[in-house]
Amino acid sequence: MKTLRFLLEKEFRQLLRNRQLMRTLLLAPLIQLILLPTAADYSVKDIGIAVTDNDHSTTSRRLIEKIVSSGYFRLIGYTDGYPQALKMVEQDKADLALQIPIHLERDLVRENQKQVFVSINAIEGTKANLGGAYLRSIVSDFDDEIRLQWNVAQSDAPTVSVASSNWYNPYLKFPLYMVPAILVTLVTAMVAMQSAFNIVQEKESGTIEQINVTPIRKHIFIIGKMIPFLVLGIVLFTMGLLVGWALYGVRPVGSLLTLYGSLVIYLLSMLGLGLLLATYSGTQQQAMSLSFFFINIFNMMSGVFTAVDSMPGWAQAIVASFPPSHFIRIMRMVVLKGSGIGDIKYELAWMVGIGAILNIWAVLNYRKTA
Amino acid sequence: METVITTDKLTKRFGSFVAASELSFEVHRGEIFGFLGANGAGKTTAMRMLCGLLTPSSGKARIAGFDIYHETEKIKRNIGYMSQKFSLYDDLTVSENIRFYAGIYGMSIPAIKQKTKELLEELQLVNEAKTLVRELPLGWKQKLAFSVSIVHDPEIVFLDEPTGGVDPVTRRQFWDLIYAAADKGVTIFVTTHYMDEAEYCNRVSIMVDGVIAALDSPAGLKHQYGNQSMEDVFYELARKAKRGE
After folding, report:
1. Residues B55-66: pLDDT tens digits?
2. Contact criterion met (CB below 8 Å) for A13 and B92
3. Cys-Cys link to A88, which of A94, A241, A268, A303 (CB 3.0-4.6 A)?
């Protein structure tokens, strides 16, 4: 225990003396929390649309006007032939091509139905999906409108409409959803990567050799490496929480004790990963590529941007082994909903289990002798 | 004479490659034992086994009275080691390095303070106590690294090419430190490529291709091989080496 004191003293001295690390530590939460929640927004706007109007009627003009005035679409071209409109999609100028057939107005009046044709550039999946959906809803809205005008009697027909209300995030404010998740990615990158780098750096410089000829016990050495990064993670998290509050008014609804308790469990599991990566890397470059691999997958798959629930079953099974996916859920539940320990016990159990495996593996794989 | 290192057919294999083959020798207390050999002869492998950094493939050895297989942690309490690679923390100051290493060997705070003061005076680094080690010239660093490796008063200190790249004047000062430590009863086990340094040793062994080819005092070796200098003795033996670097 006495040796631990000297180890910690040394680690903290080195960390605090590492100007570059301290600078990143201060700036990273600020920059990420300013950029991501505001810029990486789910809602799609400014969809380019090319319209081919073969009808040239009042009805077709009203439809186009309705689409453009919805705020989601920007009229890129108004062409006479469908090939020109499609060309615009091919040239990436437009995302959608809408074809209004000849006799739209006449047929609507006569036959009570008519189809419009939409081509969607599906390279940007989200944009295409949402753009198509927006357009469909605008067209069906429009359909209702003209029917209402022409045939008042039909409005007596019973209709079912859905009224929804959004709980926990009533205005669907994107930052409210993103800030908790970004906080997680922030501490993940910092803690897992930096702890791995730190140990590998001692391997590279040769100081670990010197440590290995001392009677230091390996678990003491590992604890001495973990505690500073645990503290670092908690400081970083707190700073991020404060920035999120100052910038977006995101304040945890749930108890801070639950939040910080989960954070410590999470950090311990990620430190286990950092240590494990360090035992498998001889150079900082190797540690960098290894951790980059994991962090990338974590960020893409743990539900920061895309919902884990909508992934295929096998993918969900893989994601369940990622500690960040559980902590992101906990964060959103505690911060937005005010969930208590009882609500997050499943996630906590997962993190404890994975953390235990990673740490035991790391300790077994760390050797003082070759 | 009391022996502090005894090895009996100590061997290390890496796959089919025998890095160190059946090493058998004894080192006495307070002796300066030179461990010579060309690059790749197996010196570092042998030394790493003796320090408990590498598990031997076969053979026996006792270091400071402890078994090399089962009592490595006890061995570690009683030895010091200075590796080929620089082993102090660059981003800590001179006195912080001393404090750290003394601390992990379990010295008390007052003892550490006393020791730090002594060392700084001995190394004439009193004014540099608060200087980051990174900013010291190489020779000073090496002298400091040596002093730190014996900060806990070990029975034996292993030095792996401690003076590589150091200027002749500083090398001389470094050897003064070694003599001072030996006078206090510390056994010195040192590898070197400098033959003038070999002359400073009480006894010298020369490794060739993983085997100890010769072992005697510098005078005895020169007599045995009929050469004027250790340089010539080394040439004559090392020339027979079959394995390259």
Report:
1. 999 999 999 999
2. yes
3. A94
Interface test with B, best of A1, A15, A22, A214 (most B CBs within 10 A): A214
Q: How many CB atoms lie within 10 A of CB B173?
A: 17
CB-CB under 8 Å, A206 with B104: no
A-chain CB neighbours of B83 within 8 Å are 206, 209-210
The sign of the CA dihedral A277, A283, A284, A288 is negative
Whether residue B90 lies within 8 A of chain A, CB to CB, comes out as yes
CB neighbourhood size of B172 (10 A): 14
The verdict on B72 touching A (C-beta cutoff 8 Å) is yes
Strand order in the sheet with B156-160: B79-82, B156-160, B187-191, B32-37, B203-208, B211-216
Domains of chain A in sequence order = 2-40+171-365 (no CATH), 47-156 (3.40.1710.10)
Q: Do A13 and B90 touch (CB under 8 A)?
A: no
Flag if B87 and A209 touch (Cβ within 8 Å).
Answer: yes
The string of pLDDT tens digits covering residues B39-54 is 888 888 999 999 988 8
Give chain B's domains with CATH numbers. 32-44+83-238 (3.40.50.300)
Residue type, B194: Y
The pLDDT-based confidence of A162 (bands split at 50, 70, 90) is low
**What's the predicted TM-score (pTM) here?**
0.80
Name the helix (H) or strand (E) containing B116: helix B109-122
